[in-house]
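Figure caption, in words: inputs first, then the predicted bound structure.
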Amino acid sequence: MKELTVSATFKIYEQLSELPSAVFCLMESAISARNNAYAPYSKFNVGAALLLDNGKVVIGSNQENAAYPSGLCAERVAVFQAGALYPEAKIKRMAISATSQNHKVIEPIPPCGACRQSIAEYEIRQEEKIEVYFMGEEGAIMKSESLSDLLPLMFEKSHL
Ligand code: THU
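Bound structure (tetrahydrodeoxyuridine present):
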């Protein structure tokens, strides 16, 4: 019997003003993207913003549906939009911010498992890491250096 230990290190910024200015700007885009969320069921608004290597910023927000599983998370709306609009571009960085219409969200909100899997596909395809910064509505921001930290032992094309 062998053991495999998987570990990851995440940076934690206590507040928005601690972020490097380019990241701060991207997070501002994610925060404003929350306003475009269509979240009448969960009342949980999520915004995501991607910086591409061509300089473009692509935003996404969660889009819900009365048939609940037909909705889509902000992060996947953003990465699929980037893939559709700029298939040659690489994603450098993603910023995510979430808020609730019912209460203040003060802890960092990480992307769900399905979104991690989807973002990881782009990281593998472009052969370059994607930084992910995520936060709630205020308070700390967490940074992941790579999807392999957020989704260790991921399923990928080499397994097919
Ligand atoms: N949501 C996201 O947009 N991203 C995530 O990573 C987690 C959840 C959305 C989906 C749904 O519209 C609402 O938040 C509540 O789950």
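DSSP finds four helices and six strands in the chain.
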